[in-house]
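Exercise: predict the fold of this chain.
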Amino acid sequence: MAGLSIDLNATEINRTAGGVAQDLQEAMVKVQQFKEFLDTWDDAALAGFGLSSADIITIRSVFVDLAQIRNLYVGGATLAVAYDHRTFAKRIFGFGFHR
């Protein structure tokens, strides 16, 4: 498993499990904060920062999806239909990211 060494022990397993959980919690907080930021700016203001219309649409779509994941994570919603939340996020992963 990635991130675990050949000298596997309970401490390392606990540290890795805790780190993954903390990373997820931190990511969910960042999703909420960035979504709130996006919601305070209209498209014209974002374009003023140099973003193209296509970029703005993509970023907004990504954060609608990510906010839905966050809502599921915090227990604020349920998902009735299966949905691949990577659909839009994959568009902004960047070059060389293939997970």
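Check your answer against the key: The CA atoms of residues 65 and 85 lie 6 Å apart.
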